[in-house]
Amino acid sequence: MSGLAIRAAGLVKKFGDFTAVDGVNLQVKHGEIFGFLGPNGAGKTTTIKMLTGTLKPTSGKVEILGLDMKDYDVEIKRRIGIVPDEPKIYEHLKGYEFLDFIIAIYRLDKKQLEERIDELCGAFGVDYLSKLVGEMSHGMKQKLMLISVLMRKPEVLFLDEPTVGLDAKSARILKELLRKYASEGMTIFMTTHILEIAEKMCDRVAIINKGQVIAESSVAELKESYGKSLEDIFLSLTATDDIQEIVENL
């Protein structure tokens, strides 16, 4: 098996005359927690959509688990998991019906998963599987989406702002679970605006701005190179205005 779980080469995505992602190259190893950081509109979500096969690149190449997305998109989608920043779930379904739907789509054994679903529901405080999705808050939907993905234990897990909407306890449990799964060989690719999470959790990070990756390294190497905290490094690379001056003018 290749040492890379995720590889993007020359990834470009254009929407008309606008270039959202401009020549992104990424290499993520098996069992790595990789943080993908950037300001709003930098191209993070567009990149994830291309890496997971939900959006076709204008040009460039994506390989997941050694397979070319162009030729093996169905096989790849079977082996990965995706938790988007906005959980889109059929609102007319009840929670348990949504989980049954995912089990059927992936042709999983429901009986083998029952104990795991119960454990995950207990961990995240999900006691509302009989409630309609349309009646759930954003945080409740986020937990349901997490359970629907984590119950499968995918080989590669993509998370777009995974802690948004989660209470403090659930966010902590998720972070501990991700560390555990990575130690067991799962590859985790995550975006987050919370730089403290990236600093504490990620083996390596890449910073994207205006569609281009402008830094990629381990957090320790970045901090040593710049002599600053990850937050200060991030702001120095991506912020165009002086923050102190902005505050003073308010």
From TrEMBL:
- Origin: domain of life: Bacteria
Q: Record's PROSITE patterns?
A: ABC_TRANSPORTER_1 (PS00211), ABC_TRANSPORTER_2 (PS50893)
InterPro entries in alphabetical order: AAA+_ATPase, ABC_transporter-like_ATP-bd, ABC_transporter-like_CS, ABC_transporter_ATP-binding, P-loop_NTPase
Q: Which UniProt keywords apply?
A: ATP-binding, Nucleotide-binding, Transport
UniProt xrefs under SMART domains: AAA
Domain ABC transporter, first and last residues per copy: 6-235
Tell me any Pfam family this protein matches. ABC_tran
Cite the GO molecular-function annotations of the record.
ATP binding; ATP hydrolysis activity
Entry keyword Repressor: no
- SUPFAM superfamilies (alphabetical): P-loop containing nucleoside triphosphate hydrolases
* Record-given protein name: ABC-2 type transport system ATP-binding protein
Q: Which organism is it from?
A: Fervidobacterium gondwanense DSM 13020
Query: Which taxonomic lineage does the organism of this UniProt entry have?
Result: Bacteria, Thermotogati, Thermotogota, Thermotogae, Thermotogales
